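User: Hey, quick favor. My workstation is busy. Could you predict this chain's structure for me?
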Amino acid sequence: MLTVRATSAQAWLDVAVPALLAVLAVTQLVVDEPPGDPALMTVCALVTVLPLAARRRAPVLVTAVVGAGTVGQVLAADGAPATFASFVAVMVCVYTLAREARPVGIAAGLAIVTVAVTVLTLLQARAEPFQPFEFVYPLFYFGAAGALGALVRRRSERLAAVEDRAVTLERELQREAELAAAEERARIARELHDVVAHGLSLMVVQAEAAEELLGRSPTAAAQPLQRVQETGRQALAEMRRLLGVLRDPEAGPPATAPQPSLRRLPDLVREAADVGLRVDVEVAGEQIALSPGLELAVYRIVQEALTNTRRHAGASRACVQLAYSPEALRIEVTDDGRGPTGNRDGHGLIGMRERAALYGGTLEAGPADTGGFRVAAVLPLEDGR
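Assistant: No problem, here it is.
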């Protein structure tokens, strides 16, 4: 059966129609006084119309009950015709079948109606001579009701399809607008990047000029130093604009807290210990002062590796190794768990690879030779420190 969301108007109609037909049926029985058992005819008449309240939820079942009630009413009246309300109830059932039911339900319901009309015709033929139109004209009216239901159903389906296409089109337009905005932000970011890069180049040139003048004429060195200050302020302003362009509009205002550094590695160890993961930190080689950006990348790689260990690996112990050399910093995070499941890299591994690639480094992730999971990154130090 088709899924129908009943509105308040439909709910009132589902109650009002059977109530009105029930009053009409009882009134007709009282006025006409047909032969037979009045009480049984009244019960059958009510059985014929009251189930219409549930016709949208179970159209086939309601059609069967209405048909049986109509036949029972004619039997109780010794072959006298059923009430007009019963005739209308059957028409409503046929309309509802065509409007709400699936093809199988429609076929079953129409078969029930055909059998009921045939039985009613035969019962009435026992009381009076058989007239062919008495069999044909009900089928004609019922067919008209079914055609109307099918027409309304088709119109509703078309409206639903139009609404679905409108919603889909709106989503596509919104997505296109978002993509266009992202492309425009990327274009602006490239332009601002060129501006910032040019400003930094000028700062380097002016600083070199000031360095040469300091030995010969310290007073003359003040002018290029002043230009370095002015260019630095301009570059800083452009950098803020660049970050504003790249920032997600829904991310809110930028954070003002300082970015984490390797000095906060003990905090990561304590956070892991709070959730039952023991973390050992090993540092090899002579520690070298790193640039803030590179130090942040190292911290984030270690942080994300430990996060993946807690989230996916099911490990109880992990080890973080930092190996310094004049050429590169090697980072290795191993655990005794099973590692992330599935064949695709999650967002965490992708983010770590992007951070490593930003500084010309590489990152590998996979099962360790000794068991567990291993994340290893190598970051060159020539340009990063």
